[in-house]
Hints:
The protein is mostly helical. Helix content is 73%, strand content 0%. The protein is built from 3 helices and no strands. α1 (10-23) packs across α2 (27-61). The protein is elongated and about 70 Å long.
Amino acid sequence: MNLTIKNIPDNVYRSLKQEAAVKGRSLNAEAIRALSWSAEEIDRRRQMRETRPKLERFVASLPKLTSSVFLIREDRSRR
Length: 79
């Protein structure tokens, strides 16, 4: 797949070009790496948004916690 990007801000271009040089990559390879990282981040955040309601339902289904003092005293009395 080919993509043409126009009007890239100078600071973005300089950063990509500098990072490409440091890593020994072409500007194209560095742009693909940056876009890939961004796409992975977008997917990760989408998955988190989709998973959150399930997590909230699970947490709501758990029994309410009470004071642990009773459990601690019971454990200590067994020793």
